[in-house]
Amino acid sequence: MTRRAVIAGTGSALPKRRMSNAELAERVDTSDEWIVERTGIRFRHIAGEGETTATLGADAARTALDAAGIAPNAVGLIVLATATPDQTFPSTATKVQTALGIDDCVAFDVQAVCSGFLYALSVAESMIRAGSADVALVIGAETFSRILDWEDRTTCVLFGDGAGAVVLKAEDSEDRGVLSVSLHADGRHNSLLYVDGGPSTTGTVGKLRMKGQEVFRHAVVNLATVLGEALDRAGLSVADVDWVVPHQANRRILEATARKLGLPPEKVVVTVDLHANTSAASVPLALDVAVRDGRIRRGDLLVLEAMGGGFTWGAAAVRY
Ligand code: COA
């Protein structure tokens, strides 16, 4: 038996306001047809007054704890992935801790943009395996609407806000829980997807900038490779996979990656049509949707994967 981090519960949260492609077409020169054809996106949720990365993260965490039947004060570790924290500091993880009424735990943010959840999962599961925590909250939460250039049609149509969370619990098991994680980063590609501000450079928050086509090309290759790597490390193959839960950036990236791996498209969880790209929130958000609608069942083999700014990318094989 091996001490492993098992997913005890999942949760998610979305801002109240849902924005359609037609509404976007009133702001920038675009159309529902263009957005659906090139990306598969139909809707995204946009945070309103009082909704922040921390409030969304806390709501997702509460739902995940309820699903797990675990009280907030049993949580020993919160790792929150975000590129859009409420403030530069303190960490959004500590804000979620306070919102949940947790008296004392380890809490910090990680930042790997759209791969953030995979990085956070890796840190939390390593700490659980090492015995540093028995119960961990791993959260991906974002409000990208607040760093978008709403006049740039090449980026503002692609992103949305939201949060997803999983509760990880230590369990002695042969084959349940997080089985492997594979992570990468290559900073040579910083200039293809970035924010043009920051505390140490401009002193402003900045706006998201992206060379979409180049990101697309790297994404398919990197995602297919890392997914295979995570399976290899777990001693599994593509044929063992029940569900791929990918980062939801673009339907065409999801389809091209599945094709490259020889994975049937019906094994890929797709929520990009409803949520657009919610960066670090997208993997746990898609996971929670598929758990709650009954697609993902206990015992299923999942592969989670994501790629984002940096570039950073990663995948994890998980027996749910
Ligand atoms: N509405 C209408 N037209 C648009 C548009 C929009 N929202 N955005 C761009 N266009 C135009 C372009 O200006 C271009 O016009 P031109 O041919 O007259 O110059 C044309 O559409 C084609 O643009 P292009 O960039 O070649 O389109 P594309 O097929 O590559 O699709 C993306 C663009 C951004 C959807 C696509 O490249 C993509 O999804 N990339 C990956 C981005 C991503 O996932 N990033 C996050 C990773 S974490």
Automatic annotation (TrEMBL):
<keyword id="KW-0963">Cytoplasm</keyword>
<keyword id="KW-0012">Acyltransferase</keyword>
<dbReference type="InterPro" id="IPR016039">
    <property type="entry name" value="Thiolase-like"/>
</dbReference>
<dbReference type="GO" id="GO:0006633">
    <property type="term" value="P:fatty acid biosynthetic process"/>
</dbReference>
<comment type="subunit">
    <text>Homodimer.</text>
</comment>
<comment type="similarity">
    <text>Belongs to the thiolase-like superfamily. FabH family.</text>
</comment>
<feature type="domain" description="Beta-ketoacyl-[acyl-carrier-protein] synthase III N-terminal">
    <location>
        <begin position="108"/>
        <end position="187"/>
    </location>
</feature>
<dbReference type="GO" id="GO:0033818">
    <property type="term" value="F:beta-ketoacyl-acyl-carrier-protein synthase III activity"/>
</dbReference>
<keyword id="KW-0275">Fatty acid biosynthesis</keyword>
<comment type="function">
    <text>Catalyzes the condensation reaction of fatty acid synthesis by the addition to an acyl acceptor of two carbons from malonyl-ACP. Catalyzes the first condensation reaction which initiates fatty acid synthesis and may therefore play a role in governing the total rate of fatty acid production. Possesses both acetoacetyl-ACP synthase and acetyl transacylase activities. Its substrate specificity determines the biosynthesis of branched-chain and/or straight-chain of fatty acids.</text>
</comment>
<dbReference type="InterPro" id="IPR004655">
    <property type="entry name" value="FabH"/>
</dbReference>
<keyword id="KW-0444">Lipid biosynthesis</keyword>
<dbReference type="Pfam" id="PF08541">
    <property type="entry name" value="ACP_syn_III_C"/>
</dbReference>
<dbReference type="InterPro" id="IPR013751">
    <property type="entry name" value="ACP_syn_III_N"/>
</dbReference>
<feature type="active site">
    <location>
        <position position="277"/>
    </location>
</feature>
<feature type="region of interest" description="ACP-binding">
    <location>
        <begin position="248"/>
        <end position="252"/>
    </location>
</feature>
<protein>
    <recommendedName>
        <fullName>Beta-ketoacyl-[acyl-carrier-protein] synthase III</fullName>
        <ecNumber>2.3.1.180</ecNumber>
    </recommendedName>
</protein>
<keyword id="KW-0443">Lipid metabolism</keyword>
<dbReference type="Pfam" id="PF08545">
    <property type="entry name" value="ACP_syn_III"/>
</dbReference>
<comment type="pathway">
    <text>Lipid metabolism; fatty acid biosynthesis.</text>
</comment>
<dbReference type="GO" id="GO:0044550">
    <property type="term" value="P:secondary metabolite biosynthetic process"/>
</dbReference>
<feature type="active site">
    <location>
        <position position="114"/>
    </location>
</feature>
<feature type="active site">
    <location>
        <position position="247"/>
    </location>
</feature>
<keyword id="KW-0511">Multifunctional enzyme</keyword>
<feature type="domain" description="Beta-ketoacyl-[acyl-carrier-protein] synthase III C-terminal">
    <location>
        <begin position="231"/>
        <end position="320"/>
    </location>
</feature>
<keyword id="KW-0276">Fatty acid metabolism</keyword>
<dbReference type="GO" id="GO:0004315">
    <property type="term" value="F:3-oxoacyl-[acyl-carrier-protein] synthase activity"/>
</dbReference>
<dbReference type="InterPro" id="IPR013747">
    <property type="entry name" value="ACP_syn_III_C"/>
</dbReference>
<dbReference type="GO" id="GO:0005737">
    <property type="term" value="C:cytoplasm"/>
</dbReference>
<keyword id="KW-0808">Transferase</keyword>
